Please model this.
Amino acid sequence: MTGVLDAPAASGAGLQMQELIGELYPICRSITGQGVRDSLRLLQKHIPLEIRSVPSGTQVLDWVVPREWNIRGAYVKDPAGRRIVDFADSNLHVVSYSAPVRRRMPLAELREHLFSLPEHPDWIPYRTSYYREDWGFSVTHRLLEGMEDGEYEVCIDSTLEPGQLNFGELRLQGRTDEEVLLSCHCCHPSLCNDNLSGMALCTFLAKELLGTETRYSYRFLFLPGTIGSITWLALNEARARNIKHGLVAACVGDAGGFRYKRSRQGNAEIDRAAAHVLKHRDTGHEIVDFSPYGYDERQYCSPGFNLAVGSLTRSGHGQYPEYHTSADNLGLVRPGALEESLSVYREILGVIEGNCRYRNTQPKGEPQLGRRGLYGSVGGWAALGLNEAAMLWVLNLSDGEWSLLDIAERAGLRFESVRAAAEALEQHSLLERI
Model:
């Protein structure tokens, strides 16, 4: 494939992605509510995203779409009447999905609803109570240790009412109806690497693909974690059968090395493509087997669907100290890391797009390349932008059984070199695509 997926990362893309993260950062998101809608509408300024709505109470596989949660404000006042915790200062202060409460209570009772991180006394943890009605506050451990006995005033001005679950969807038609899925979660409040970096990457990848001719169709999903992917799968079982390759994007903005988690299938084409690209990049990386915990890949890879969907992150799920804390802030995500992540995703899609099989039309002996202009008499192969080894490997293994990715793996060459050689040979009728 030629076009956007082959181009180097656009200059300044990382800074633009970080700017988008900065716009999304203050919005209080949860698995439902106005914050999700506001976030998706912000993305609509960049891509033609469709915002889907599913009513509360809808049965989705073994789950039920929950009531919608919204919050206007929250605080804790100490015995002297001072506001020592304020939702306006950080939307991580309130346990997500907290039921409304307005009470006065002693510190001993309040402590049962306070969460902190003793190992990081100045950070605020991210906590949720999605499917069990409760309430709580997340605070710094330093604040918690300094709280004195007495009566405290507690207020959480929230609502839990019938409403809807929202998610964003964009499908770009390719030459075939077979699809590549790019999925990210959009439900975390003010967590930049875990949540917003994946949203920014998928948005910019979709922008690059808009108007580009591709072999596959592309489906982008911006979903609340777990319940969002389960809802989409429940409502789209027939469409899900068209998904041939997929990646779940999260935690792609920090300075860690890349970490690819294989699909449940273990050796699907997307697994091989990701491993191949990472192997030939001068960056540290780790390849891990599928496990049934993490992000939404575990829903796409559940046995009833078993889609070929892997997950590509930098520091992975729970693998960095700032994970699910207030320290996962704008200072953690770096423009260079975001841009490099976008480049890696682009390159993996380039492998998926370009992987095909050929048959050598002159299989008896090596064809004479010089008279076809495929062997430069001055400067040799390099002057033609071709790799000699790639040319010879493609000719030798193109018997209709080996794909270009097979050949690249066997030869230990970058896929781009193998594909360029195949395209040159095809132009001279030495290969035919099958």
Notes: The first helix runs from residue 13 to 24. Residues 3 and 212 are 7 Å apart (CA to CA). The first strand starts at residue 50 and ends at 55. The two ends are 16 Å apart (CA to CA).
